[in-house]
Amino acid sequence: MGRSRTANTGGIEAFCSDLDVEHTDVRILMLAWRMNAERQGYFTLEEWRRGLKALRADNLSKLKKALPELEKEVLRPQNFQDFYAYSFRYCLTEEKQKSIDIDVACVC
C-alpha cells in the first residue's frame, strides 16, 4: 500500500500476480465490487480492509479460496444487477461520462 495508503495500478498488478490471476480477469472486478472501490486501478486501505473482511480472508491463501465463492455471490440474481451497475460506474473515467467505449466494455 505504501505511504499513501493506496495501492496503485502497479500494486494491483503485483497483487494479481501473487493471486495467480491476470489483472484483466473479471474476478478482480468482482473483488473491486466487494471492496466497493471507487477508482479503477486503485484500492485504498479502507476499501482493501472492507473487502477482505467481507470475504473473511486475512491472507493470500484464504483470498484465493474465497474467489470461487465471490463468483457465486455475484451470479446470484439479487447481486448481479448491483454488480452490473457497479461495473459500469467503475469503468467510467471522466466525471460527466455517460457511456464507455466498446473496448472497455469487453474488458470490464
From TrEMBL:
The UniProt entry, under InterPro entries, shows: DCN-prot, PONY_dom
| Residues in DCUN1 domain copies | 1-108
Cite the PROSITE patterns for this sequence: DCUN1
One GO CC term, this protein? ubiquitin ligase complex
Picking any one GO biological process from the record gives: protein neddylation
Top-rank taxon:
Eukaryota
List GO molecular-function terms, semicolon-separated: cullin family protein binding; ubiquitin conjugating enzyme binding; ubiquitin-like protein binding
Report the function annotation for this chain.
Neddylation of cullins play an essential role in the regulation of SCF-type complexes activity.
Protein name in UniProt: Defective in cullin neddylation protein
Source organism of this protein record:
Vanilla planifolia (Vanilla)
